[in-house]
Design brief:
With 230 residues, the protein is an alpha/beta fold. The chain contains eight helices and seven strands, in the order E-H-E-H-E-H-E-H-E-H-E-H-H-E-H. It has helices at 16-26, 43-53, 68-81, 101-106, 128-145, 161-166, 179-189, 214-227, and strands spanning 3-9, 31-36, 57-61, 86-89, 111-115, 157-160, 194-198. Strand 2 (31-36), helix 2 (43-53) and strand 3 form a beta-alpha-beta unit. The chain starts with a strand and ends with a helix.
Length: 230
């Protein structure tokens, strides 16, 4: 079974090498695909050097930043082309712990979600307001869409190849962070088995956050749209 980790990057030059080292230390057999959206800080050049030094590291260079969803769609397509049996998606900023990757891959569900809000999950260091907004958003999404997920917007996941092949990736509409919600919904509606396992989600180690207030509004709009989609 070939596992490939897809990691979108934009201005992550301080994180890409430590992340690759941590992932390969956790599982030397996996492969990594960075999807770089022409980062102005030189992230792409750093990744090129890593690829030249290690055949297990790959990069997909994109011309411009088009949103997290577009980067993942391109990355998933490339991962399938590279022969991945399981595809893991995660952030490059260490908010997702590389040590948790083996637990995601070991689960036998079609989609495994690293969840902040099942028993054992945590968001250390988050202020009360941020935790409240995140939990309230999850409840709203469950009520509106019907999906029985505690963490419908989490971004640390493991997909089986057959799921990604079935989801018609080019037709995914969400360009931004609501991509997570739309992909979960497509998977659930097609009857694939989804399992949530606990993770601890921490704030980034280096670089800057790309989260904006508009992300919450985007998720609400997508949830309402999915509610009435046939």
């Amino acid at each position: 079974m070939k596992t490939l980790v897809v990691i979108p990057t934009y201005d992550e030059k301080d994180n890409v090498a430590p992340m690759a080292d941590a992932l390969l230390a956790a599982d030397p057999s996996l492969e990594i695909l960075f999807v770089d959206d022409n980062s102005p800080d030189g992230t792409g050049a750093v990744i090129d050097e890593m690829c030249a030094a290690n055949a297990r590291i790959h990069v997909l260079h994109r011309e411009k930043k088009e949103g997290l969803g577009r980067a993942y769609v391109a990355g998933f397509a490339k991962a399938l082309e590279l022969g991945a049996d399981k595809v893991v998606q995660m952030d490059c900023d260490f908010s997702h712990d590389p040590k948790d990757l083996s637990r995601l891959v070991a689960e036998d569900a079609d989609l495994v979600i690293g969840s902040r809000y099942v028993k054992g999950g945590a968001t250390p260091g988050w202020p009360f307001k941020r935790r409240l907004i995140s939990r309230a958003g999850g409840i709203f999404i469950r009520v509106v869409t019907g999906m029985p997920l505690r963490d419908p917007t989490g971004g640390f996941k493991c997909w089986k190849r057959r799921v990604l092949e079935a989801l018609d990736l080019p037709t995914v509409q969400s360009a931004g962070y609501s991509f997570q919600l739309e992909m979960n919904h497509r998977t659930w509606k097609r009857g694939f088995a989804i399992r949530e396992i606990p993770i601890s989600f921490t704030d980034r180690v280096a670089g800057y956050s790309k989260i904006t207030p508009g992300i919450a509004v985007e998720s609400i709009k997508i949830a309402l749209k999915l509610r009435f989609r046939k």
